[in-house]
Specification:
six-stranded antiparallel β-sheet; 21 strands; six-stranded mixed β-sheet; 17 helices; 522 residues
Length: 522
């Protein structure tokens, strides 16, 4: 909950006294509720909270504070096992949700009980914690955040090897250790790392000064990025207009999610009203970015990634780029990438999956449609940072005498759906997808046509992505961090074809009887 130190931080940020009193009353009310629940119940951890590459639960319904302590014990034991150190150093941080600090405090108790030396950065972004592992040369990281999930969710993003976060193998191991209480015992300790926010900000600023002034809308959805993104963008030379950058853990307008149409529409309006050069939307823990051009039009992040890849391919010929299965099909057929002997590999969606694939393939960069961008050496450390990604877009504008809409117009036009998430229970979603994979493969074998086209190619590294000869495609996969599926469609031919592919998918889903409401829908 909001403690005295945290309230002092808010005062330093010049958030008005009325707002603080409101937050304090809200926090005390929540604290009483959560304390009662946690005191009444024994340790509680829903096994489904251990997801593909991080941990997420509804709090306190699916995990309580005693469960969080055990999660810390499990993670600490795992870190000690992998590092072969009795007292590994673990960097921790938390986002701005009302309950994140108390989650972190209990996670630290578990870590310290195993022998870990905890180094607490305080209020953080996920990429700030990742950066700290390199800057402080620590052994592991643990960031308390539920990213863009709705209020009520909590979670932990964690990693041991520098620049990487847990993948399914590590998550399975952590689940086994935690649920079966296979804990090590040791004597750890903790210390506060003061003013690390400034270290992180200055590292990005000093390397990225712009030659010309760029007018930027910085939208943070009242999430944690609000005390980072504006300062950094101003520091590199941008004129910044802030949109919902004050910290408010109730998220009064919309969740800080750069794939959310409501957030994107708000940025679009601000860009047009202020005649801005570009608009950026950052998610709750700052590792993703969404982009709106100077006309107020959304540019899906996979196409921003393609622009960056094309630009990099000139200097780094023969490079590899990793993109997720939700991303545009334009990468595979891009003339500039082909002429510069660059290879694009489509891989599993998820920040941990793409990070590891970038590392394994020694790729120059990786891009996800969700807005996670990964820059490997010599451009970065391999982890995802939404603010650094926004900076790279600023460099595109800085290096060219063109508006953003003119730069994006250089790409072939395609009609893309938003990322859509129909509800599907955690214990049913993977089976639903498996059954649909079989069904769609049968449709391909039987040469069944969708909008007059036969399925020409199927990719099953992550759910199923089925493609047609004209470059149109559809994707069905299980969400890695929520009880839902993920649906995306794209067509270079027409908006009508894109919609017909979605209708085909939706018909298949509805026939399963396992699908609930969509979070958004075309």
């Amino acid at each position: 909950m909001l403690c005295a130190d945290f309230l002092n931080t808010l005062y330093k940020l010049e958030i008005n006294r009325t707002f603080i009193e409101h937050e304090k009353k809200y926090a005390i009310k929540k604290l009483k509720k959560y304390t009662n629940i946690n005191m009444k119940k024994e340790k509680k951890i829903d096994p489904f909270g251990f997801r593909e590459y991080d941990a997420r639960w509804l709090y306190p319904e699916n995990i309580n504070l005693k469960g969080i302590v055990n999660l810390g014990k499990g993670l600490g034991s795992q870190i000690i096992h992998h590092t072969k150190k009795n007292n590994p150093r673990v960097v921790v941080g938390h986002d701005y949700r009302s309950y994140s600090e108390e989650i972190k405090e209990n996670l630290k108790k578990g870590l310290i009980s195993t022998g870990c030396f905890v180094e607490d950065l305080g209020l953080s972004l996920s990429p700030m914690v990742y950066f700290a592992q390199f800057n402080l040369d620590s052994d592991a990281v643990a960031m308390v955040t539920a990213s863009h999930n709705e209020n009520g969710w909590t979670g932990v993003k964690m990693g041991i090897k520098k620049g990487l976060t847990h993948a399914p193998e590590e998550m399975k191991e952590l689940k086994e250790i935690t649920l079966k209480s296979k804990f090590l015992e040791g004597k750890g300790k903790e210390k506060k790392i003061e003013n690390f926010q400034d270290v992180y900000k200055n590292d990005l600023i000093k390397k990225n000064k712009l030659n010309k002034k760029i007018k930027v809308i910085a939208a943070c959805g009242n999430g944690t990025a609000g005390i980072f993104a504006p300062d950094i963008l101003r520091g590199i030379g941008c004129e910044v207009i802030e949109l919902d950058c004050n910290l408010d853990f109730t998220f009064p307008k919309y969740n800080p999610n750069p794939e959310d149409l409501e957030m994107l529409h708000a940025i679009s309006k601000a860009v047009k009203e202020n005649n801005a050069d570009i608009g950026f939307g950052f998610d709750g823990d700052g590792d993703r970015v969404g982009v709106i051009d100077n006309n107020g039009d959304e540019i899906f992040s996979d196409k921003i990634g393609l622009l960056i890849a094309r630009n990099l391919s000139e200097k780094y010929q023969g490079s590899k780029f990793i993109v997720d299965v939700k991303s545009t099909g334009l990468y595979a057929k891009d003339d500039k990438l082909i002429n510069n002997n660059c290879e694009t590999i489509y891989w599993k969606t998820g920040h941990s999956h793409i990070k590891r694939k970038v590392n394994l393939e020694k790729a120059l960069a990786g891009f996800e449609k969700s807005g996670h961008f990964f820059f490997n050496k010599p451009l970065g450390y391999g982890y995802d940072d939404g603010i650094n990604s926004a900076i790279q877009v600023c460099h595109l504008l800085d290096n060219q005498n063109k508006k953003m809409n003119e730069i994006i117009s250089e790409l072939p036009n395609t009609f893309q759906s938003p990322t859509m998430g129909p509800f599907c229970k955690d214990n049913e979603k993977y089976r639903v997808v498996e059954d649909l994979v079989t069904e769609i493969k049968n449709l391909q074998n039987d040469k069944i046509k969708i909008d007059g086209q036969e399925i020409s190619e199927i990719l099953t590294v992550n759910g199923i992505r089925f493609s047609f000869n004209d470059g149109s495609w559809g994707l069905i996969r299980a969400s890695s961090n929520k009880p839902s599926l993920v649906i995306v469609t794209e067509s270079p031919s027409s908006e009508n074809r894109m919609k017909k592919i979605f209708n085909f998918i939706d018909d298949l889903l509805q026939k399963t009887g396992k699908i609930g409401e969509y979070d958004q829908k075309i």
